[in-house]
Amino acid sequence: MESEGYSLRVSLFITCYNDTLFPDTGKAVVRVLERLGHTVDFPAGQTCCGQMHWNTGYQEEAMPLLSRFVEQFKGSEAVVSPSTSCIAMMRDHYPIMAERSKDKKLQSDVAELLPKVWEFSEFLTQKLGLEDVGAYYPHRVTFHASCHGLRSLHLGDGPMRLLRAVRGIDLVEIENLEQCCGFGGTFAIKNAEVSSAMLSEKVRGVLNTRAEAVTGCDNSCLMHIGGALHRERTGVHPIHLAEILASEEGGQP
Amino acid sequence: MSGAALDPTTAPKFQVAAKALMGDSQLRKNVRHATNVIQKKRARVVEEMPDWQELRESGKEIRRHTMRHLDFYLEQFERNCTAAGGVVHWAKDAEEARQIVVALVKASGGAGGSPTEVIKIKSMTTEEIQLNKALEAAGIHAYETDLAELIIQLGHDQPSHIVVPALHKNRAQIREIFQREMNLPDLGGTPQDLADAARKFLREKFLRVKTAVSGANFLIAETGGVCIVESEGNGRMCLTLPDTLISVAGIDKVIPRFQDLEVLLQLLPRSATGERMNPYNSLWAGVDKTSLGGDGPRTFHVVLMDNARTEILADEESRQTLHCIRCGACQNACPVYQQTGGHAYGSVYAGPIGAILTPQLMEMHHAQSLPYASSLCGACYEVCPVKINIPEVLIHLRNKVVKQQSSGLNILANPEVMALKAVAMVFRNETVFHAAQKLGRLGELPLSRKDGQGDAWIEWLPGMLGGWTQVRDLHVMPKQTFRQWFEARGKDAAGRRADDQTGNGTAVRATRRPGDTVEKGTGNGR
Q1: Which end of chain B is more exposed for a tag (fewer CB within 10 A), N or C?
Q2: Which residues of chain B make contact with A250, given a CB cutoff of 8 A?
Q3: Domain A140-246 has CATH 3.30.70
């Protein structure tokens, strides 16, 4: 935990899907970190962590993405990413991948880099020791704890503590918080029927909270849940935790 | 579900079978109800254990150690079991195991001739090798004596869970089966009525049939003993009343010491049925060699079956599959299993453990869709009493499947392989990635529709991607990527700050801009 007034240079790993589909999340991460007095840089050669390939069975294809990530981020003071599943990919698999590469340099680089890599919410709660980041969001919100955040990163109630400190928020807990939403990357397409059934339960949980928005630390789950919320014209929208934390009184909604 | 055996060599792909089964409202309600009840019971008895995580770790170490020295412990078991009066047989595969059991049953009648009946204790290993069918073909009828297995057998059904095989049936359905198959048209519908009917039906078999077939929960190398745990006492009947007992076990069932049960018999019942202890714990070694007529069979056989387990052991990444103690906790916890039930897996081993075990038992020649029957949510790993990292093994097996699909000309027949390989190339260079993003924006243009808020969404996607839009819309790609926003912002600020050029030359550095219009409010983060 860092002391007050400490300023870090944070290297943002935006992730491929956030870069392409959810730029607002990245902007929000930058806003929050800068508001807290830190500087943000964006290594320009970054692309993807390799999660989709690794988890779908394309291990060989994921290997060059590990080297690319390490090349781009080694030497960073801190790496922050607004995606639980990508961070889980790195923590759970990068050491194994490096070992398999038989490249000693890569192994030591990975070992050195990984402890500096943080998921956005855990960077705030664990590295910076913060709960109140000065946000204002006067809406009824429920939180979806993504499986990777819950069972791989063990975020616990970290994101909820950040949300509880948001001024004006009406935070309401969803039933079966631990239950998977059914996204699972390529699972959503390969096993569309089962994924849809799991999604239907999660959507019911969201609707039962009568929230206006469902938030979380992973836009991939939120894209999946939000896709169904939109299809059913529920009027409930997904929003990444960073975007709620970036919202301020008198600022953007 | 028809009476056709769950056979991975002929089963449809998981997603196909799942789609059909998910239309069965009754089945889905039954599965959901049962898994919820067992999960809650499990959670209660696990929470009360202060050392549960340490127990899991011990369980894992016992199993890991055993697998590292499996040859030693199997031979030790054979020696000690033989010394105690048992007869140990080795079967390299299912076919050999079936032949051995059929021959042993035939011989068990002695001078009285070949028996035409055996009684059985629930055993997934004998389900794995479809033993009943082989016995039937040899003119021997097997009576299942476990209540759930009896329901399955009388209902011409198949097991859908490794601990609770009839979990997909509710009480009303069970009553109908009993009324029809036991010829009891007036049978009541209370649990008591059903249990009474089963008891009457079975009691007579226990007393009449002289040969029993069982599986095994654990084989204890140190003593040559066998352990079976159960809830109904039918197992105890089968283990004590018949003259001949034949136990079929995978070679993975061995444990080194009697004392290891201290750990495993805490982990197993709590994980399996949410009980602190199984109602019946039977342990025996060999036969009673005295002439006093003590309990137990006069002749005892153990069939140690490999059936691809050695192959699994040889794979460093997935050998932890063999650590499984068949508690079924992963099945109850799995959100996929909860939707589909067990039959969708096309194997007697369903759920997460089935998704890793079945393809490996098939040596990856069948059941290749099973490693993908998971969202990798990790709930299975969390509840596994011996800490099998099922998601890791699933991913490892997916890699094996991809290698099969990518070999030679196979690759051309598989659009998914082509697509994922192409995407991987895109991610190897940020300029190509950027170009692909632009191309994607163009490609999706004809599919985009404005909603009431003026927001553009896609409601239909072609081909494989159609799985997404069957129940979900997809927001179109925003006009500007994050990278474009950040780089444009960096250029604005670059002129004002000299230190922007530091770093490795690829990084664009941005700091807070005091004039930024969104930087309002009073939050200071403290």
Answers
A1: C
A2: 520-521
A3: no
- CB count within 10 Å of CB B236 equals 18
ipTM exceeding cut-off 0.90 for this assembly: yes
Q: Is A62 on the interface with B (CB under 8 A)?
A: yes
Q: Name the stretches of chain A with pLDDT < 70.
A: 1-5, 251-253
Q: What is the DSSP string of B402-470?
A: HHHHHSGGGGGG-HHHHHHHHHHHHTT-HHHHHHHHHHHHHHHGGGEEE-TTS-EEE----GGGHHHHT
Compute the distance between CA of residue B42 and CA of residue B53 in angstroms, rounded to an integer.
14
pLDDT at residue A6, as a whole number: 79
In a domain, B180, yes or no: yes
CA distance B430 to chain A (A): 6
CB-CB under 8 Å, A50 with B520: no
| Domain extent listing, chain A | 9-127, 140-246
Sign of CA dihedral A135, A140, A146, A150: positive
Percent of chain A with pLDDT over 90: 96
- The total number of structural domains in chain B stands at 2
Q: Give tens-digit pLDDT for B477-516.
A: 999 999 999 999 977 765 544 343 333 333 333 333 333 3
Q: What number of C-beta contacts closer than 8 Å exist between A and B?
A: 261
From B211's Cα to the closest Cα of chain A, the distance in A is: 44
What is the C-alpha separation between A192 and A197, in angstroms, rounded? 9
Structure tokens given for B148: 């759930």
Tell me which residue in B22, B372, B437 faces A190 most closely, judged by beta carbons: B372
Distance CA A40, CA A32 (A): 10
Domain at A9-127, CATH class: mainly alpha
Query: Could you report the per-residue pLDDT of B218-262, keeping only the tens digit for each?
Result: 999 999 999 999 999 999 999 999 999 999 999 999 999 999 999
Q: Is residue B277 situated within a structural domain?
A: yes
Question: In the listed set B475, B496, B517, which residue is the last one of a domain according to the structure?
Answer: B475
- Domain end among B312, B332, B367: B312
Q: Determine how many CB atoms are found less than 10 A away from the CB of residue B107.
A: 14
Place of tokens 């290749």: B368
d(CA B402, CA A60): 10
Question: Is B73 part of any domain?
Answer: yes
